[in-house]
Amino acid sequence: MDCSLLNVANQAAPVMLCKESSFNTIAAISAIVGAYGLIFTVITYWQNRRIAQNKATIDLIFSNENSDHFKGNNLIFSHHRENGGFDALVHAQTGDERTKRKAVADYLNHYELIALGIRRGVLNSGFYRKWMGTVVLRDWNAAQPFVAGERQKVQSDGSSHTKAYDNLEWLAEKKWRD
∠ at Cα 90 (88, 96), nearest 5°? Predict the structure, then answer.
């Protein structure tokens, strides 16, 4: 608003005359402040999301990989990876073979969970890849015959697990394969 004092004849005091400006400074400042607030909110959201992904990734790594169950599964998996593979475990007959088959399946399920978390944006792919990428790819390559055997198995109800370890396969073959 633009105001000025005018001396008008026959008036003892000057009269203030105001005219409204076509440019509203307060509205313009409010719009700029609002835009900055929106930009700040979006940046904060994405930073908090990234921090939450990193925290979830670290929490999962430590909770799973420091457990006795995971360590035992890792030993069994590593033994089969280094000593001739997993063929005998696909069609496990004895109690010992079934126990080892379950340990290998549990070990791969750990990777499947990681891959699903990465695929859904819950876990940070870049962070986990730097931490375990080479190991995941090595283990995936070694376990492919086991995975193929699991996918071909027909269950007692006639169903099969044709999509077993699909997320792990996606991670190793599509997302991380260079």
Answer: 60
